[in-house]
Design goal:
This protein has 104 residues and is α+β, with helices and mostly antiparallel strands. 24% of the residues lie in helices and 34% in strands.
């Protein structure tokens, strides 16, 4: 977050992925990107945290928000936790920041 266009969400780059923390809120009425929560991105998910359903929904919601295929959104850490580390492939950091700003 070294430029004025960066969202409040902390972004980093590693292994060809733009990475950021996500705080997932399963069992919401509607799946949507809520906005920054600390340095993480809060995402409401209409799926329960059972059998990976919330993780699948998280990938779907983020892929739609970034305009990338689901295969380009990678859950790196936190499969069984509300706190997750996610990576997005195929977009430069500045574009991820801009799309995050537009999604909230």
């Amino acid at each position: 977050m070294d430029d004025a266009t960066s969202p409040l969400v902390s972004l980093s780059e590693k292994d060809g992925l733009v990475r950021f923390e996500v705080h997932a809120k399963p069992r919401a009425k509607k799946s949507r990107v809520v906005g920054p929560r600390g340095e993480a991105l809060e995402v409401a998910l209409a799926a329960p945290p059972v059998d990976g359903a919330a993780n699948v929904e998280l990938v779907r919601v983020l892929a739609a928000a970034f305009g990338v295929p689901k295969r380009d959104v990678v859950l790196l850490r936190g499969e069984g936790s509300p706190k997750k580390l996610v990576g997005v492939r195929g977009l430069p950091r500045a574009e991820v920041a801009a799309r995050l700003a537009g999604a909230v």
